[in-house]
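Purpose: get a first structural picture of the assembly so the mutagenesis plan has something to point at.
Setup: two entries, given in the order below. No constraints added.
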Amino acid sequence: MKIISVFPHIDRNYLFAIGVIGLIIHIAFFQSINSIMLSLFLFYWFLLGTIYRLSDKYFFGIALLFLILSIPPFLLGYKELAERLSVWEFLFLILGLWQWFVFEIVIPKIKR
Amino acid sequence: MLYIFLLVLIGIIFHTWFTFLPISAGDWGFFYKEQILEYFNPPYMWETFRNLGFGGSSFISQGVYWYNLLLGILGRYFDYGIIERIIWFFPILLVGFISPLILGKVLNLFPKKFYPIIAFLYIVNTYFLMIMGGGQLTVVLGYITIPLAFALFISTIKRMTFFKVGFFSFIFSFLFAFDFRLTFIFLFIIFFYTIFSLIYVTSVKDIVVLGKKYIVIFISVFIVTIGIHAFWILPFAVHFYNPVLTFDKAYITSDAVRYFSFAQFENVFSLLHPYWPENIFGKVGFMKPEFLLLPILAYASLLFVERKKEYMLIVFFAFLGLLGVFLAKGANEPFGEVYVLLFTRIPGFVMLRDPTKWYVLVTLSYSILIPYNIYKSYEWLKSHKKFSIKSQIYNSQNIFLIFIISYLLFLIHPAILGELGGTLKTIEVPREYIDYKTFILKDNNFSRVLWIPTLQRFTFYSNTHPAISGRDFFDDYKQYGIISHLQKEFTKELLRQSSVKYLVVPDDTQQEIFIKDRKYDETQYKEIVKKLQKIPWLREAYRFGNIVVFELDNPKEHFWTTSSETQLNAKLINPAEYQLEVKNAKIGDKIIFAESYDGGWYMENGIHGAYDASYNKYFNSFILQKSGDYMTRVTYKPQSLVTLGLTITSITFLATIGLLGVLLVRERKI
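Result (structure tokens, whole complex):
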């Protein structure tokens, strides 16, 4: 609880930068799609999204960016890299749906 | 304009369906006139061709009985090629075209001029073309019914009338008849739609109203479906067994799921069937990056959608697509173990060991999301002056539409260029198989035919001469594995006890059997014939072209006895009933009925048991309780409930049709 309460006071750009660096490391350097690694990064982005109340469209945008980025590696034959990019696209879509569910549906209902 | 375009496209892709030459490929078999006429009968709960030609119960395969009955009726007047089109191919095109349009109309997310894009994406995608080409017609029928059933369901929930409830129940009963797996998937769709509907419910009163609607719908669905399927559900309920237990372990273990998880994540995500376009089982094609534009088109709609009522529907379809992607990739990464867990723990998932069936969710999702995105982009281009061109036809929005359509056409270009095989190609029945059929029909005594290594597409079989696949019989799938079994002396006795009279090596005219590295290998055929010729207890008796028929001396009859004095004479009444003449019988004599063991078989004056014929073949046996000469009957007990079941079915069917007619007239008056 303590960690979460101090979390918003940290400059959020640092936290996003950590998240992006983590993604780049995973996409560029990990050879396989490791479920545990995916879960860790996913949880991190889930926390960021929840704490900073990011819009679902923000995640959908990132997802589509990943999908567009995955096309050149597929064309150039870097299949593993392209796969990892498209997996992240999928996961960011899920995150977007989650954000929508929490901030558009659940919280307004509770407030009402 | 788009409607005409789509119809022309369908005409080009399925042009072979507009001839009357027979079609048979993949799982879609071929039936001779004699076999077709056999379907003009009541439903039999026991069928001789099941269980590798040793007979088996057919309760859960009876959903398509009405189709088969129609096949039997039309078979009296038409050839197979014509019947196929009347019963299956033309209805598939018609319903496949209309069903997505109805869903589009009910959802009302965009103007109707964009509806043909829904139908385009739903029936001219790689998944549909592969299941269609592979001859999985019951899956296809279920697939094309789902948008219609879903549209009716949504419409009923929106504004409930008795007609809508009845019509949805009626359509659901068809879906249930076509394919249990797709019914299961459809229920999944309904389940998540319900959850999404509940999200927008604001008061307890609304929840109660919604709950009441669901109760009415499900009671109606239950009554109509059970009623219409009573002719097999009733015997099945009385003679209940868990069908899963009858499956080979290779089909229900987690290893089976891993084996059948052919689609990689990126395949499903891009709505690209892993076998596209060759459609060879197990041969996964390379990822085609051009398909990656499809998910971009689909999920970009999430960025365009405004936060109004339609937002819920778009998010629902996006969710459905993502869920489909996750499930259809099966045990592949990411989080592949989740599917294995669902398969082993969640009831019903055991039917979906081939996870590609979940592609249905992806196609349904993309069929709505992509047209929605196209519509939004089209409107955006139209409204932005920067892009506006005054011409009615040559304007930026139409150019965009043409670009998208061209792209979609490019994705399926092998289909347009006629490069797809399977059921999109016609066939010709080879002469030698017709000669073989004529030969076997002349032999009126019961005997089985063992096909080495396996049955060919044009293999003729009947109740008098069931066909057995050698590979399945010996459970040996190695190249010459069956030969080594046949070279063993005790195999002769096993075959004799199994009433096998002929062993046949097929002519592999379709190049589906003698395959090495996915190519036809004639040496395998020659080698098998040569090796069989060397087996001393086999005699080469006939040749029809390259079909070689070997004969085994003194096979046992369908009914035989261990007693040397007792004489038997059996007569087939129907597959579920035999008349047996017994002579010189003594109490305690054992009669073997060479059909797969099943507790449902019953004989007057006999105690039923099992007879172990080795190789995991268990036949039925009866210990006689009466001596002397007499006539008796051997019957499959569950069959006795079919008449009652058929009566319930007929009443339910007619009552539903009648009620729907009355309700429709009354609602129109109002």
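The mean pLDDT of chain B is 90.
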